[in-house]
Design a protein that fits this description.
The protein contains 20 helices and 4 strands. The chain is mainly alpha-helical. It folds into 2 domains: 348 residues, no CATH class; 92 residues, no CATH class. It starts with a helix and ends with a strand.
Length: 448
């Protein structure tokens, strides 16, 4: 599926993927590893784990690509599928693990995450690791240090909600009437060292802007409201709708699985403990996302693994009447069919405006690849394909530079923003444009 997404037309200019791409290049090219800025000069609003992983994938190749940008997300989705496979096999049986993993991978929500330059997949993977570590520590009475370390990485992926969602399944201890045993002191110490140690480095690099953006705006302001004015709990129903719609048809089977946990719990203790843990993991996450003012379908990725596990068990119940060989053949045929559907869908995306613009920026970058230039108001996708990371130059400064004696090349979308600042008599030459029409989307101009 990752290969299909890389082979189909790119949509880098969609879903706010340009910001994470700019953060990666800011780390690789400008050395801002602790805290990054985008091409408009704004400090990143998210912790840097995704940026670090994509940057490490970029370094061996010497330049960024869609492969290195999307690789962390693809590995995170594959990792979650493996967790569903192994956990389902251990507690629910091989068939439940296999079809739970297939349901997870082949759902519209998670297949989209495979090649999406956002933090959601990495965040969800770290939460899944932390949640399963928490279940193991709860049932064995030890191992909490591992949970806190993984919770720290979940926090570095997107924020402190990772701890709450990763530990949400532990509400099952009340259901099971069992206490949580074990020592948390070392784990909490390592959690604080990792999280606050990074934040101290980020503050040292970017100063008060880090506090204003990450703590005041993202953590506090977005906890009670969002940019559209919506407040906490106003759109409480949307996460349920997103889950049902974007996890179809497996969301319906997952709902049956939730009902079974409540009405017909497993008789064997390990299976019953695990199914109740999954139920609480999903429920706590859903409540958190329902309260939050900012709503987006991709945000539900951290609660899809428990839903996939319970859906896989329902599929296993249905397939008990079939032989194992027939089940495997059916799984192969179904997977191949879904791969074909996925390929057809993403190849058809080439007709979308945002995809054509992304391809246009790639074409333009190839035509001016060796020419140093400044950027006034261009989308970052052009810089992505040029493998540069510059902050936008104000129109007045660009006009003054074009009016000077030195050679200057400028990429821009709206020439009228720069024109008033160019001195009379200065001859401006157009070096390239996209598209080749009377009204180009991006132009490259020069005073030579």
């Amino acid at each position: 599926m990752f290969s299909i997404r890389l082979a189909t037309p790119p949509n880098l200019m969609d879903n706010d993927q340009e910001r994470p791409a700019s953060y990666v290049l800011d780390a690789v090219l400008n050395g801002h590893w602790a805290c990054q800025q985008d091409w408009m000069g704004d400090v990143t609003s998210k912790p840097p784990l995704y940026t670090w992983l994509a940057a490490l994938a970029t370094l061996p190749f010497g330049r960024i690509s869609l492969f290195s940008l999307y690789l962390p997300a693809a590995l995170a989705v594959a990792g979650m599928a493996c967790l569903v496979l192994l956990a389902g096999r251990k507690y629910f049986g091989p068939t439940a693990g296999l079809f739970g993993a297939l349901a997870f991978l082949l759902s519209p929500m998670m297949s989209r995450q495979i090649a999406l330059a956002r933090t959601d997949a990495v965040f969800a993977f770290m939460i899944a690791l932390a949640a399963l570590a928490a279940f193991r520590a709860w049932t064995q009475g030890k191992g909490w240090t591992l949970f806190w370390i993984l919770a720290a990485f979940a926090t570095l992926a997107k924020g402190p909600l990772g701890v709450a969602i990763g530990a949400g399944g532990l509400l099952a201890c009340l259901w099971e009437k069992k206490t949580i045993r074990g020592n948390h002191l070392l784990g909490l110490g390592l959690f604080c060292l990792i999280v606050f140690g990074w934040f101290a480095l980020a503050y040292q690099e970017m100063g008060q802007a880090v506090v204003d953006k990450m703590l005041k705006r993202e953590l506090i302001f977005h906890a009670v409201s969002d940019d559209t004015g919506d407040f906490m709990g106003q759109n409480f129903y949307k996460p349920v709708v997103y889950f049902i719609h974007r996890f179809l048809p497996w969301s319906l089977l997952a709902c049956v699985g939730f009902w079974r946990v409540l009405k017909r719990p497993a008789a064997v203790e390990p299976e019953r403990q695990f199914e109740r843990f999954l139920f609480c993991w999903f429920l706590v996450g859903l409540v958190i996302f329902s309260i939050a003012p900012h709503q987006r379908g991709d945000l539900l990725a951290p609660i899809i693994p428990p839903a996939a596990l319970l859906a896989g068990r329902e599929i296993a119940y249905f397939l008990k009447r079939f032989r194992a060989q027939h089940t495997v053949v059916g799984a192969v045929i179904f997977s191949i069919a879904m791969l074909g559907v996925t390929a057809r869908y993403y190849f058809k995306m080439g007709e979308d405006t945002v995809v054509r613009q992304t391809l246009g920026m790639e074409h333009l970058a190839r035509s001016v690849n060796t020419i140093p230039m400044i950027h006034v108001d261009t989308p970052f996708t052009l810089q992505f394909y040029l493998n540069t990371m510059q902050q936008l130059t104000p129109p007045e400064k660009a006009g003054e530079m074009l009016s000077g004696s030195n050679k200057v090349v400028v990429a821009l979308c709206d020439f009228n923003r720069v024109r008033p600042w160019i001195k009379e008599g200065v001859e401006i030459h157009e070096l390239a444009r996209w598209p080749d029409s009377d009204d180009p989307f991006v132009r490259v101009i020069s005073n030579r």
